[in-house]
Write a structure and sequence with these properties.
heterodimer; A: 6-stranded mixed sheet; 5-stranded antiparallel sheet; 21 helices; 13 strands; 63% helix; 12% strand; B: alpha/beta; ABC transporter transmembrane region fold; 4-stranded antiparallel sheet
């Protein structure tokens, strides 16, 4: 039983309706069995056909009602499952966007997409099945059994005894199968992935001259996979074997015991037939549960995975203390809406000031810090270079500055207001972001440029497109600005992608720019040209540029050198060179060349 | 559509197993039906007054036998079924591999989007269901259908035909309607879901941008409304499935009544024994269990078609590649001789390109044109240029993967393209993301030379400077690398791949941007290791920037398919201001502004 189940919105009416329908269904099963038995035994006794019309129609009616109930139950639970599934998906999507790109990095893009798409489907199947199955299990067999007891005690006893035997055996076999699965899970996984692994590595195999001979290994591994699977299946299928075996055996025992008592004239044919028709129906709910067991288990797990994401805490930026410029607005917050206050705090102006006080980031309680004791101050429009080797904490610092990540310790003072973090929508809306691989979605070039600012006019778009040096590309595209790019259209080169991101930033005229390793993956000429385009566009903005490409630093107003999660040095290029510290060391090591 | 390509061959090669599975499936239904039949017969017989226990002994045995046999037969049926399917799966995999293997080097350019290889593998997994979920249940249903009608026919032909008509509704009419109704909608749902998949992947990859744009709720809204559209079509499919089930059951109900009336009539006429009334009526329910699932089985057909189409698409492309085969055969012998004559200790490979040009179609632009290269043994050249400059085409020509459309490309006097399968004996390749297979480090390195001893593997590892890494691993060289080498960082993966090609020990090594994405220190260290370990070998190094260019004998700048500038590093520095400018970008110390104090 899933303890989450009762927590879903609208689940109680569904339980009630399904419960009622199951009750009606069970009663109609009783009725149809009785009707059919009566007709058969009357005919057997030689009564004329035409007298049986009424009872036969009663049987047919009960039969149809029974299946109509099944239809309605399936409809009700489908509707509930659909609604709950969508609301879970909606909640999860909202949460994903709140948690941001950090979370995606941890879980993997593929995993998340599969969870949203397939996980929801599985979860829906689970919800759709679990309610009717649970109710069916607890209502139908009990009702039928009570009725059978009123007719014939010994059949009732046989049927009663079978049920626990079935359940015990199924659990025993289930546990054994699971143990066996777990034992060989690792080798099993390797075997089953071997084929995809081989296909993905086909190019490498070809280069190594091993691609021909590798087909033998595919055949042998597939065979080993087969024997491993069959070993597991031999045990796994036993559970449905036990289910089959004991229900059938029970029905057979009931039939034989009925026969014996009929011979001894301890019973009438009508009773015997009724019980015989009811016996398989008594086991039907258990069989259905067995048949849907794996589907429900998968769905339950998917539901839990989604819930674990939805229940994650998102740390929002909290206002710790208001002083200075933001104070007036904060005081006004008692009358005006809170959003106004927040917006004024997070707005970046020419005279704004941002202070990081002893910022630290730790992903795990016991783990090492990604950032520790980072204290920095920035004012107005400056170009700030963040440099360091990989693992020095550049990206973490960028995530803090961009409002993607809530620090685990320290505070931030912005415009005189002390905050716990910058993770606020109002702050992010001040920022234009250019990552190593900017997001080019499937759509027109113009729409991609308008990403931050959808209301922009076509003239404005053409202006910024020209400014970032994309005019030649636009001229070469068949539809110009309206040409489709991204996944569904023409794919752009790395340099062009950066220019689109740049056009976006330019069009939005946001006062801050955040660049995370924008050129390291490009060939050197493209990098050079892009740099020439970018530099003039930085004027009048607060720019954070994190990179390991040293050449950018010469053009920065301030350089922050990161090392092992800490700020090693802060200063201008010439200051830092003169100091001969960490920055100088970085330059020296790149100058050395390769020996 | 060519379903026979991926379907029929397996039916004929596993014909007898298929027969066995279907026979067992039919027997399963038969046992279940017989249990109810004999039970009905038993209690009817027992209720006739003068009977004694001996008279019902046979039906009792029957009831017990059928009661136990169904479970056993069904168990065996499932095991045999799955075993056969897994055998077929194995054959299909080998076959797909054989189709893909010759075009390995074109796959990435042919299927640019998505994980086509993963999809093809899934398609094959999916095709197993054709047999388990569709073919077997349908054939078994037809078999039971025939048996039922024939059995009834021995009593009363007209009634047998009537019942035949009822069952026809279940086995043919409903499935056909189902197929017609669901085909289009299922395709819609599938396409729509693929689109959602793309859209979502897109958005998750660009999550940072969405979050910054402040428009994330807008995305969630449009995504949800798309999901609602799919849900609507899906809902229609489900409605039909429920209705279909109900109609099917109604047919069964009417069937029971018809049978009842017929049996009563026959009994009244004295044509059958009264004991058979109950037997006939009770048998209907288990028999119907064979017919009801047919609709669902048939509905799945369009889905298989999708998979089969994709698989045949790959196969068709292969035929095209084969068309230009003949020219390979001629020079192949000469190439083989060259490879066999290579002196492993002191090889001498001479690569020459004379006015070589290539274009993918006769109307396309030239990818490379008029290239002349003379690379003698041990020479080291760097090739640089932006994306689309023709670097990868040039590499393909040197490796003989493609034959130049103009001019010639020869290795030791034999056309490069003639080497074909022999080329890994001459040229090794280290590219941006060499694949590490899900096995141990040692096994990954051993791929370079399967006959290598443990010592040789260790030696190659040492040459690639893997020692420190290996000694930090729990099981040393026998540590599994995990899927796609996840255990290791980018630089470490490259070192393992480097050890692998060192073991391959070819006279020529092509380095295709092996350091993209690595940070400067790792890059430098890796390059230093490579250049050191490959002393004496010919190096053809495609790179995206100029770190390490000083170590090369020649630097070639490509643009638009031709050579823009070439020469040694020193020559280019002296002669080409453009080269100097770019080089300075990689060496910021000598840049104006900070340069004076920096020059050591």
């Amino acid at each position: 039983m899933d303890k989450n189940l009762l927590g879903y919105k609208g689940v109680k009416p569904v339980f009630l309706i399904v419960g009622f329908l199951t009750l009606v269904q069970s009663l109609s099963i009783l009725l149809l069995a009785k009707g059919l038995a009566e007709v058969v035994s009357a005919l057997f006794a030689g009564e004329p056909l035409k007298e049986q019309w009424g009872t036969s129609l009663l049987f047919l009616l009960a039969f149809l009602v029974r299946h109509a109930c099944a239809l309605l139950m399936s409809k009700v639970s489908y509707r509930f499952a659909e609604a709950t599934g969508s609301s879970m998906r909606r909640q999860m999507m909202d949460k994903l966007f709140q948690l941001g790109p950090r979370m995606v990095g941890d879980r993997g893009t593929g995993n998340l997409v599969t969870l949203v798409l397939e996980g929801v489907t599985k979860f829906r199947t689970y919800l759709e099945l679990i309610i009717p199955r649970m109710v069916g299990m607890s209502v139908t067999p009990v009702l039928l059994l009570i009725y059978i007891y009123t007719l014939d005690t010994s059949s009732g006893v046989i049927l009663t005894l079978t049920m626990p035997i079935i359940i015990v055996f199924m659990i025993l076999i289930g546990v054994t199968a699971r143990k066996q699965m777990d034992r060989q899970l690792k080798s099993y996984r390797t075997l089953s992935n071997h084929f995809v692994d081989s296909l993905r590595g086909l190019e490498t195999l070809k280069f190594l001259g091993r691609s021909r001979s590798h087909s033998e290994s595919i055949a042998t591994v597939s065979d080993r996979y087969r024997s491993a699977t069959m070993r597991t299946l031999r045990v796994a299928f036993l559970s449905s074997f036990a289910l089959d075996f004991f229900t059938m055996l029970s029905v057979a025992s009931v039939a034989v015991s009925l026969g014996l008592r009929l011979v001894n004239e301890q019973m009438t044919l009508v009773t015997g037939l009724t019980i015989l028709i009811l016996a398989p129906e008594y086991f039907l709910p258990v069989r259905l549960v067995g048949a849907d067991f794996h589907a429900t288990l998968d769905g339950k797990e998917a539901g839990e995975a989604m819930k674990s994401i939805i229940d994650r805490e998102t740390a929002t930026a909290e206002i710790i203390e208001t002083t200075g410029t933001g104070a007036g607005a904060a005081a006004a917050g008692t009358t005006g809406p809170e959003a106004v206050t927040r917006e004024s705090i997070f707005t970046w102006r020419a005279d704004s000031e941002l202070l990081l006080n002893e910022i630290g980031v730790k992903y795990e309680e016991e783990g090492i810090s990604s950032l520790s004791g980072v204290s920095l101050a920035f004012q107005g429009a400056r170009k700030i270079g963040i440099i360091g080797e990989s693992g020095a904490g550049k990206s973490t610092l960028v995530d803090i500055l961009g409002g993607f990540l809530h620090p685990s310790s320290g505070s931030i003072t912005l415009n005189g207001t002390k905050l716990s973090a910058l993770t606020d929508e109002a702050w992010r809306k001040q920022t234009a972001y250019i990552p190593q691989r900017p997001y080019i979605f499937s759509g027109t070039l113009a729409d991609n440029v308008r990403f931050y600012y959808p209301e922009a006019s076509m003239e404005e778009v053409s202006r910024v497109v020209a400014e970032v040096g994309l005019s030649r590309l636009v001229a070469s595209l068949p539809g110009g600005l309206e040409a489709m790019i991204g996944g569904g259209g023409r794919s752009l080169s790395g340099g062009q992608e950066q220019r689109v991101a740049l056009a976006r930033a330019l069009l939005s005229s946001r006062p801050m720019m955040l660049l995370d390793e924008p050129t390291a993956h490009l060939d050197i000429e493209t990098e050079y040209e892009l740099k020439e385009t970018m530099l003039p566009l930085f004027t009048g903005k607060l720019v954070f540029l994190a990179t390991h490409r040293l050449h950018w630093m010469v053009d920065m107003d301030v350089i922050v050198v990161m090392d092992h999660g800490q700020v090693a040095e802060v200063g201008t290029h010439s200051e830092l060179v003169a100091r001969k510290g960490a920055y100088y060391g970085l330059i020296q090591s790149q100058l050395e060349g390769i020996h | 559509m060519k379903p026979e390509g991926w379907f029929a061959p397996y039916v004929s090669s596993y014909f007898w197993r298929f027969v066995l599975i279907i026979a067992l499936g039919a027997l399963t239904i038969f046992s279940a039906s017989s249990l109810m039949y004999t039970s009905g017969f038993l209690i009817s017989k027992a209720s006739i007054p003068p009977e004694n226990i001996l008279m019902i002994y046979v039906p009792i045995v029957g009831v017990r036998t059928f009661g136990t046999s169904r479970a056993v037969i069904h168990y065996v049926e499932r095991l045999v079924g799955h075993d056969t399917i897994l055998r077929i799966l194995s054959k299909m995999r080998v076959r797909l591999y054989h189709i893909l293997e010759p075009q390995a080097l074109f796959l990435s350019s042919r299927f640019r989007t998505g994980d086509i290889l993963g999809m093809l593998a899934d398609d094959i997994e999916y095709l197993q269901n054709v047999y388990l979920r569709t073919v077997f249940p349908s054939v078994i249903a037809l078999l039971i259908y025939a048996a039922a009608v024939i059995t009834l026919g021995t009593f009363d032909l007209a009634f047998a035909l009537l019942m035949g008509l009822y069952i026809l509704v279940l086995v043919v009419v409903l499935p056909l309607i189902s197929l017609l109704f669901t085909q289009k909608r299922q395709r819609e749902v599938k396409q729509e879901r693929n689109r959602l998949y793309q859209k979502l992947t897109d958005a998750v990859l660009g999550m940072g941008d969405w979050v910054i744009s402040g428009r994330q709720s807008q995305f969630v809204d449009t995504y949800e409304s798309d999901e609602q559209l799919v849900a609507r079509t899906d809902g229609a499919l489900r409605r039909w499935a429920r209705l279909r089930m109900f109609i099917g059951q109604a047919v069964v109900g009417v069937g029971v009544l018809s049978l009842l009336y017929w049996a009563a009539g026959e009994y009244a006429d004295g044509a059958i024994a009264g004991t058979l009334i109950a037997a006939f009526v009770l048998v209907v329910f288990p028999v119907a269990d064979a017919f009801l699932p047919v609709s669902e089985a048939v509905e799945k057909i369009p889905q298989y078609r999708n998979s089969v189409e994709r698989l045949s698409g790959v196969a068709a492309a292969e035929e095209k590649e084969r068309a230009d085969d003949p020219w390979r055969a001629q020079a192949a012998a000469a190439a083989l001789e060259q490879v066999n004559n290579l002196d492993k200790m002191k090889p001498d490979v001479h690569i020459q390109l004379i006015n070589a040009g290539y274009r993918y179609g006769s109307t396309e632009d030239w990818s490379i044109r008029d290239l002349t290269l003379d690379i003698s043994q041990g020479r080291r050249i760097a090739i640089i240029g932006r994306s689309g400059a023709g670097k990868s085409t040039l590499l393909k020509v040197i490796q003989g993967v493609i034959k130049p459309s103009a001019g010639t490309a020869v290795i030791n006097g034999v056309e490069a393209s003639a080497y074909g399968e022999q080329i890994p004996g001459v040229i090794a390749v280290l590219n941006q993301s060499p694949h590490l297979f899900d096995t141990t480090v040692a096994n990954n390195i051993r791929l370079g030379n399967p006959e290598a001893t443990e010592e040789e593997i260790r030696a190659a590892g040492a040459l690639a400077r893997l020692d420190t890494l290996i000694s930090s691993l729990p099981e040393g060289y026998n540590t599994p690398v995990r899927e796609a080498g996840q255990r290791f960082s980018g630089g470490e993966r490259q070192r393992i791949a480097l050890a692998r090609i060192l073991l391959q020990n070819t006279p020529v090594v092509v380095l295709d941007e092996p350091t993209v994405g690595l940070d400067p220190r790792t890059e430098r260290e890796l390059l230093a290791t490579m250049f050191e370990a490959m002393a004496g070998k010919t190096l053809i190094w495609v790179t995206h920037h100029l770190v390490g260019a000083e170590q090369m004998d020649e630097v070639i700048f490509m643009e638009g398919g031709s050579v823009e500038m070439r020469g040694t590093h020193a020559e280019l520095m002296a002669r080409e201001p453009r080269y100097r400018r770019l080089y300075e970008l990689d060496r910021p110390g000598v840049m104006p502004g900070g340069s004076d104090s920096m020059t050591p």
